[in-house]
Every structure is written in structure tokens, then in C-alpha cells.
Amino acid sequence: MSLINQYKATHEGYLPIRVLQYNIVFKFENSNPNFLTEIKKIRSEYGLSSDIVYGINTSRGVGGKLRGPFVLNDKMEIHLQETFSAYLWCICCSLIIATYHVSEPDNQYYRDRKCMGKRIMSYAQSLIRGYHDWDKSKLINPELYNSRDKNLVEKTNDLFIHSINFILCHEFCHIKLGHCSKNNHLTNEERREREIEADIAAIDILAYGKTSQEFMKESVGITVAICSLLFVRESIANETHPDNDTRIAEAVSYMQVDENDTSWLIACISINLFQELFNLNLIWNQQTSYKELFLHLSSQLE
Ligand SMILES: [Zn+2]
């Protein structure tokens, strides 16, 4: 077994997620075949800043609360924080491991990786509270890894790129839909509606010009992106953002995937991880599909 090292001197940042920085920008600009043209149009209409601002907001030992991608309104810049990217990568990895436990329970590699799934989840949780180093010698990561983990790291990278891209497209849609100008006097209800509107518009961007096979990857990424928000806070309800379980249900339903699609399975697994993290006792009755199971669990979270 050998070590694989992806680091290059051009990679900025402190965390091993830095090796994927350029992949994020490339995927965003190629969200669909017409997207670069659309970016240019929005740029001239709304003064959208040319690049995604990649924030290395913390230095070693200096804390900084986790913050998802956001638009700086007066500059129309989309900001992406390194710690958030790290958080999302870890959630993706943990969800992939948990999904294999359900879909391929006899797969020895994933059985061996169960403990790593929990450890990488705890590391993600630690980032919510502030910056923490990502110990590359003990935790799986995209920069320096053992060749036996190559497949898992590559799967995680791919899911992460799709997932973070949905969040960036969601932010882009806030600009495109005019949400970023004069939104100071909105009610919480109006703000929640805007979140769903941005989700739907972002899904449309990612579906455009894709075959159903290609869209399948997008749909899983979209689901994981929204599910990742479940773990950020203890209470599922959120004053200005729609309840996260409602947001998952709205987005996955809009994508019209099969009731037993991986997206619904991931949504159920996310609720399971959520209940483990926060010691909830949800009732898991047998249901006819993963979609029904998700709705059954979600109804208990009110
Ligand atoms: Zn939003």
C-alpha cells in the first residue's frame, strides 16, 4: 500500500480540501452548456463580481464560525469559505460510507470504514464551532491518502463537487432572481419562499442540457447539499430558512426522481445521522418506499 499525495504549491489554504479549489470553479462555470453565457449576462445586469471569492477565513488556531457560501450584497460577490468546503467534504464522505452500509451490507471495505465515517462526521461537527486542523495522518482527506482509500476519496470528491456546486448555483440564483437588492423588509415567510425559489432555479440550471444519467449525479449532489444543513444546528426549524426537512422534500420532489432513488435513501440516512447526533428517538416503521420513509420521519420532526 502506498500514499497518494495530491498537494501542489499552487493550492491555497490550510486544509486538505485546498486540492479541489480549481475543480470547484471549473464545475461552476460549466454547470450547463449555456451557463458561462448566463453568468456574463447576470454580470452586466447586476454587476456580479467576476470570480468566486475563495475565503481562507481562518488561520491555524484562529477560530471562525462555519458559514455556507453567501453573496456579499453591495459587491455582488459569491463567497466560499474553506472551512465550509472542508465541512461539506466530510459530510459527503460520511454519507457515502453510511449509504454503502445499507445498499451493500456485505462490502468488507465499507464495513472496515464504518468507524472512519463516524470520525470524519465528528471532525465536520468540530468545524461548526471553529477552525480545527484536519489531521491527515488519522482522518481520510482528499490530499494525502492511502491507495486502498483511493476509490472512496474519488467518490467523495465527485459528490462534493456536485454538492458544493449546487450551493454556489443557489447563491447565483439569489442574484439572478433579484433577491439581493432591497430585501431588508421581508417577513420570515417571504425569506423562506425565496430560499425554495433559489433551490428550484438552481436545480433548473443543473438539469438543463443533461441526459437523465448525467442528471442522476446532479440530483444526488443537490440532495446531499441540502441534507448537509441538517447537521449544522440542533433544531430543525429555522426562522428565515425553510425547515431543512421541508427543503429536502421540496427539492427532491421537484427533481421527480423515483420513490426509491438514491436521493430519497440519502435523505433517510441523513435523518438517521441527525437523530444519532442529537439523541432523538424517531420511530422507524416499515414504509413502501424511501420517499414514504423520509416523509414518515420528517413528520416526527415538527
Ligand atoms: Zn439562500
Care to give the gist of this entry?
The protein has 302 residues and is mainly alpha-helical. The protein is built from 11 helices and 5 strands; from the N terminus they run βααβββαααβαααααα. The chain is 55% helix and 6% strand.
Description:
The protein is mainly α. The radius of gyration is 19 Å and the shape is globular. The longest helix has 27 residues, at 150-176. The mean pLDDT is 90. 37% of the residues are buried. The protein has one domain (85-299). Helix 7 runs parallel beside helix 9 (244-254). It starts with a strand and ends with a helix. A three-stranded mixed sheet has the order 2-4-3. A two-stranded antiparallel sheet has the order 1-5. Helix content is 55%, strand content 6%. A hairpin with a 4-residue loop joins strand 3 (70-72) and strand 4. The structure holds zinc ion. Zinc ion binds at residues 170, 174, 195, 198.
Compute the number of helices: 11
Number of strands: 5
Tell me about the largest β-sheet: 3 strands, mixed
Q: Using the CA coordinates, give the radius of gyration.
A: 19 Å
Oligomerization status of the protein chains: single chain
The largest beta-sheet arranges its strands as 2-4-3
Strand content: 5-15%
Mean pLDDT: 90
Distance between the termini: 48 Å
Percent helix among the residues?
A: 40-55%
Task: Give the SSE layout.
Elements: E1 3-5, H1 21-29, H2 35-46, E2 52-55, E3 70-72, E4 77-81, H3 82-103, H4 108-112, H5 114-129, E5 144-146, H6 150-176, H7 188-207, H8 212-228, H9 244-254, H10 262-277, H11 290-299
Parallel strand pairs: 2-4
Antiparallel strand pairs: 1-5, 3-4
Zinc ion binds near residues 170, 174, 195 and 198.
